[in-house]
Each structure stands twice: as C-alpha cells, then as structure tokens.
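User: Here's a chain of 522 residues. Predict its fold as tokens.
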Amino acid sequence: MVSRISLRKTTLLSCAVACLAALPSLASASTTYTTVTANWAGGSGDWSNSANWLYFPVAPSPTTFPDNGNDGLDYAVFINKTGPVIFDVSASVSALNIGTNGTLSTAAGGSPVLTVDPGSFANDGQIDIVDNSTLTTGGTISNYGTVNIGSGGATGTGVLMADGNMSLSGTGSVILAGGDSAIDGNGYALTVANAISGTGTISGFSTLTNNGIITAGVAGGQLTISGGTVANSGRINVSNGGTLALTNTTVSGTGIVNLYTGTSSAVPDLILSGTTLSNVRLYSSQGTVITVAAGAASLIDNSGGGGINMQGTLNVANSATLDLEGGTDNMGVINNGTINVGSQTVAGTVALLTNVTNKGVITAYSGNTVQIYGPGYGTWANTGVLRALTKGFFSVSGNGVPVTTAFASGSTFDVQLGSNGASGRLQAVGNLTLDTGAAISLSQLAGTTFTTPYDIINYTGLLTGTFTDVTPGYVLDYTSHPGEILVTAVPEPAALAIFALGLAGLGLCRRKNAKRNAAAAG
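Assistant: Prediction complete.
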C-alpha cells in the first residue's frame, strides 16, 4: 500500500516538473506585447518620468514612461489625480482616459505628438495647451470636459493640430484663449459636437462639420474660421461684442448663424471675406453689424431654402462685391435693417440683390451700384427706403427680362441732388408703379447748385401713379420725357430758410400748447 506521504511527494514532484516545463513558454510570452495600466500617481510632473506612474500588473524598467513599445508593452493610461501631467514628450498609447480630477498639459515651447488607438481617447477633466506649444493628435476625442487652447495672453500661440481626421465628440467645451491660439486641421476633416468659443482661429481643415455650438463671444475679440468648407447643422453664434470672421470659406447646412445684439457700430459682429453662405439661416439682431470686406467677392446665397432676416446693419465695404440671393419658395432674404453700399469717397462697390424683401433702408453711396433682381415678368415691391446719394445708382430688373418695380404705400425713394444734373438715380427695366402713399424725399448736396432738370428715374415700360408725398419746394415732371421722371425745380435758398423757420415755429407752438394743456390738466 502506498502511504499518503508518498502520494504527496509524487504530486509535488509532478507540479515542479510541470512548472519547469512551462518556463520556456513564459520566456517566449515576455517578448510579446502585453497591455499594462499606467495610473498617474498625483501631483505635478512630467509624463516622461516613470516614477510618476503606478503600473499594473507589471512595471516596466525604471526609466520607461507610457509609450507603446517601451519594454515590449502597450499602455492604457489613466489620469484622475491632481496634477497637471506635463506632456513633455511624444507618445503613443492604447488608451487615454482623463478623469474629472485629472489635467493633461503641454509644456511651453513643446510640440509633442499624442497618438491614441481609435475610439480610446476620453477627456472628462481638463487639457491645457499652453502658450507657445502645440499638441498634435487625431481620431475621436470623447470630450465631456474642457480643452483650453492658449493661456489667455494677447500673444498666445497654443495650437491643437490634427494628425488625421479629428472628431471632438461629447458635450464638453473647447476654449480658444486669445492671441494666435488655433485649431489647425492640417488638411484633414474636423467634426465638432463640442461647444467651441473664445478668440483665435479655426483653419486648415478640408471640411468642418459643426454639430455643436461655435461662439464668438469675447468683447473686442475675434474668432476666425478660414478655408475649407463648413457644414453647419448646429449653431454659430456671435454675442457680447465679439466678432466672427469667415474668410475664404463656404458655409452651408441646416444650422443657424445667429448675431445677437452688438455693442458698437464701429466694430463688426460678422466679417465676410471671399465667403459663400449657401442656404443657411442667418439672423442679425438690431444693433449688429455685418461687413463685407474690401476687395472680396462675398456671396450670401439663400436661393435653395434657408432664411436670412437682417435687423441690423450690413456694410458693403469700398470696392467689394456682395451677391445677396433669396429664394422665391421660402423665407428668402428680408431686410428689416440697413444695407450700406460703399461710402461717399470711394466708387466701384457693387451689391447684387436677388429676391430680397426690403422693409428697411438700402443706401447706394456716391459712385456705387445696387443691382436688384426681381422675379422675371413679376413684381418687385419696395416697402422700405431706397436711398441714392449723388451718383449712387439703383437698377431693378428681372435679370435679363422685364420686371415691375413698385413703390408700396409708406415706402420712400430718397434722392440726393448734385451739380450739373448729377444725382442719385433709379433705373427700372420694365413697368414702374407708384402706389398711393409712396413718397419721394429730395435734397441738395451742400455746396452744389441746381442748374438743369435732373433725370432721377428711368423706366422702360409703363408708368402707373405718381409720388403722393414730395419734399416741399421740389417739382417733378412725369410727362415731358416718356420713360423718365425729372426734377425741374428746387426750393430757392430763401424759401428753404423760411420753410425751416416755419418748422421751428410750428415746433415751438406745439411745445407751448403741450405745456398749457399739461397745466390745465393739473
């Protein structure tokens, strides 16, 4: 009979033999990549310092930091203790998770490349790209925390650089902190669901797909989106005295571009330079300013079904060209504000307005042209004010075919007269209809003299009606020259002085009567 002691000795011997037999395979396994977890130990320190990490289940050599391939290992990195972790060296990791207590920061003067396996980059804490540094990465960043680009200095140059197509998913925020801070697409596609705000530049992308909110909302600061195409299904907002500049880009999509109340008429809220807004919804509130930059051919095209409603001011800068188009089967373009084309001192500015409803004021400054295209063989009705300064020119047509130009009741044609027949003018290619209640406001440019009848309106079709309200002292001739409306007489200077005194006296009488009535009521 075999004793229990003999059986135990036999079993131990067998286990020993088995373990020895397994040693070669263990040695072989140590040469293959094994993923280990690297946890930040806490406190401020460098990524490249191995002593700052806690590893599981095995630790690499004392000089090794998390970077796939070091010591034959892959690294899943977790940062969830106070730091910051200074990302001072390029590294590739299998996963990176920044917890709510964690912070990853670049080092000033550094430009490291961070590579994370697809779908494995999550930020619930904070990423700081400090001034004079660049963080290059790509893929999808699941951002529910905050990414700060730049440190807020006027000359900050923090840059988030794409190293492949980049997606910023989640409900987190990306803050451009001024100066030259930037998101550089580096030729790749950028998809955004985050809220991006601040001052700086978003550029270099092939396409920018905005499913989130982009806001230029720093008073006195500018956020620039430049180059590539923008597919906007989210919101692009301008508020709080900030400025959004769209430069050499095309913006389209079902999203909204919102301009909230501006803070200064001297500071534009939106600058368009070489830019197309195609089928977008654009709303500008009262007090906001849109500027079409000098020398640029900018297009706002709504012919496909968006909606442009302007309550503020649109300035077409000197020598610029604006093509503003509204569709006939949708909200189109509605001007409830002011459109200024050019200035008094520089000619050559052109605005092309197609299917635009004017309920506000459109001004053609001296030597500049506003071409209005109405529906061919239909009617373009002005319900606001068309203002033509000396040598300012309006033309209304059906873009190659006749159209009826109508001045609705309550609308005004405001014309400034100069010397030697020079004046603001309107040309209507087709019929001209002047509804009851339509007004014409005439004035003589200071320092000029009326010397001859002024041709202020031409039309190629039939004339219906006359202006109901004409500035006192001015005389219009509708019949002497078919197809023309002329100013044949203007008030004499003495008559103008008497007229002005009469208005002043009338105002004084009204004030006295108001005081008398108030005293009687008391």
